[in-house]
Amino acid sequence: MxxxxxxxxxxxxxxxxxxxxxxxxxxxxxxxxxFSAKTTRFLISELNKMEYVSFFTHRDTGVAVKVTxxxxxxxxxxxxxxxxxxxxxxxxxxxxxxxxxxSAETKNGFAAVKMHRYNQKEFVKIKRSFSWTxxxxxxxxxxxxxxxxxxxxxxAQTEFRALxxxxxxxxxxxxxxxxxxxxxMQFIGKKSLPAKILVKVVLKEPKDVLDLIIEDYEKAAExxxxxxxxxxxxxxxxxxxxxYIDWSQAIPSNYENADxxxxxxxxxxxxxxxxxxxxxxx
Length: 282
Ligand SMILES: Nc1ncnc2c1ncn2[C@@H]1O[C@H](COP(=O)(O)OP(=O)(O)OP(=O)(O)O)[C@@H](O)[C@H]1O
Ligand SMILES: [Mg+2]
Known about the structure:
Layout: H1 5-17, E1 24-25, H2 26-31, H3 37-49, E2 53-58, E3 62-67, H4 69-82, E4 88-95, E5 99-106, E6 109-116, H5 120-128, H6 132-142, H7 151-166, E7 175-179, E8 182-186, E9 189-190, E10 193-194, E11 196-197, H8 206-220, E12 224-225, E13 234-236, E14 242-244, E15 251-252, H9 258-277
Antiparallel strand pairs: 1-3, 2-3, 4-5, 5-6, 6-8, 7-8, 9-10, 11-13, 12-15, 13-14
Helix pairs in contact: 1-3, 1-4, 6-7, 8-9
């Protein structure tokens, strides 16, 4: 079964009703759409088969529907395509606990679309972490209440802002667009094959690479502090170029705790090189 524009219209309407309901009463969704009740019910049942909405039964409201995580992914991808940010959707590049990354095509080459995920355990961690300050700022900018915060969307905002602020300063994927919880950015790799992350690479000149990483980090830190800087968040192309990725927990460098976060980041990367390449601390 393929999703078409009628399914998208229904999915959008349910998404809109989520402003009022966590679980959208099916009857209400049916009245909001320009299709007959029968057609709407049929389209919703198809969306359910594709796992883009799930059903719930509530004592007071009867059957209700809710857009799933993959349902929101589909809306974002559809909109990226509609707005010309991408021309085609590719295949999954990586699935983590906090994000799903897929490749996509653009008019000029390839892109990576990172769809942020909500992770309960991680949320508890974030609330205790330095990055909470940045997320709080987004909550305030968006004018919403703290308990209404949509963490994947806030993380996408942070990542997009950091990538936009750092493009041209240090090598980061160029940001192409943001939609809901998804960020579309330059694809790092060859065609749709991603470059390796630093932890998977054996460097010939580790000391020079560490010096370059620290130099780049210092440049970036005039604007943004990464917050999860490690051998897992640096990509190395076949030509040996470095790209710094995963800025979703970054904070602007004038924020409280930015200095402590910076020290921790730099210590992390130094420790990695000291241990892996037996470099001397200096
Ligand atoms: N712009 C990009 N181009 C190509 N591949 C990418 C790009 N960004 C991320 N990736 C791939 O996706 C993986 C995960 O990306 P990232 O570190 O940004 O997400 P994450 O939230 O840390 O995911 P995880 O939950 O797995 O830790 C990277 O290790 C890399 O292999
Ligand atoms: Mg990562």
